[in-house]
């Protein structure tokens, strides 16, 4: 069977089943994984399908596309969070920033005797049942959307502490460092970075090459980046020049 014939059969399958995995392509057409992947790449280039991890779906199923993307991002964030917990040791002092990935790390952490400073209501709720963790809440102006405290008073509160490690999320990271669309959030993140001896950034690959109006810090202020995929070669080289340790939580296994 030629590639053209396989592609037609794959499209017919998708019209009926709405989803097709690499394993199904390999089994049905008796081809290697590389061949199955090349078929999907060709179909995606022609606008016929949307590739997802391990297979493909039709682009017409916009709700499914969003659902699969959300699921992939969620799984990636979980793996980033789990990897981050390797850097948390018994009796550490930490600042935990408000971000979904940092919040996941708070859920997975197993170390005891921790001292944790945070501006996130949700992280306080997660850790409040842990009798072996002491929590310090950085108050200020409450943001009901993100369920956290922001602004100069929050930044001032954070400035009262000096911790071993900061786990911080990113709205955008580019060649000039971290940026945020919100001035009050940027103010708090700056205070967190200043209060920490080691800055560990938790971010999925979608935040790379994004820049917002308010500057948070330069790349030289970041010690470790934990992410799900390698950035571009140019950005990776930039990280190396700033002596940033880059940790990939998972390898692509499509």
UniProtKB/TrEMBL annotation:
Source species of the chain: Scopulibacillus cellulosilyticus
Record keywords, A-Z: DNA-binding, Transcription, Transcription regulation
SMART domains in the cross-refs: DeoRC, HTH_DEOR
Gene Ontology molecular functions: DNA binding
Lineage: Bacteria, Bacillati, Bacillota, Bacilli, Bacillales
Highest rank taxon of the organism: Bacteria
Pfam families from the UniProt entry: DeoRC, HTH_DeoR
Positions of the HTH deoR-type domain: 3-58
Protein name from the UniProt record: DeoR/GlpR family DNA-binding transcription regulator
């Amino acid at each position: 069977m030629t590639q053209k014939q396989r592609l037609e059969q794959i499209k017919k399958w998708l019209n009926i089943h709405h989803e097709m995995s690499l394993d199904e392509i390999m089994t049905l057409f008796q081809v290697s994984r590389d061949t199955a992947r090349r078929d999907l790449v060709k179909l995606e280039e022609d606008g016929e399908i949307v590739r997802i991890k391990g297979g493909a779906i039709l682009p017409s199923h916009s709700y499914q596309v969003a659902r699969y993307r959300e699921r992939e991002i969620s799984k990636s964030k979980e793996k980033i969070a789990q990897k981050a917990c390797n850097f948390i040791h018994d009796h550490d002092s930490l600042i935990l920033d408000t971000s979904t990935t940092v919040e996941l790390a708070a859920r997975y952490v197993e170390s005891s005797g921790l001292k944790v400073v945070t501006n996130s209501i949700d992280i306080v709720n997660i850790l409040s049942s842990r009798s072996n963790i002491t929590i310090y809440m950085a108050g200020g102006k409450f943001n009901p959307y993100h369920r956290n405290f922001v602004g100069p008073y929050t930044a001032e509160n954070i400035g009262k502490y000096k911790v071993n490690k900061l786990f911080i999320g990113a709205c955008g990271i580019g060649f000039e460092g971290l940026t945020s669309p919100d001035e009050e959030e940027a103010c708090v993140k700056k205070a967190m970075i200043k209060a920490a001896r080691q800055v560990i950034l938790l971010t999925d690959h979608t935040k790379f090459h994004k820049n917002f109006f308010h500057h948070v810090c330069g790349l030289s202020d970041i010690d470790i980046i934990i992410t799900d995929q390698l950035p571009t070669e140019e950005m990776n080289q930039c990280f190396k020049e700033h002596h940033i340790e880059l940790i990939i939580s998972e390898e692509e296994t499509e």
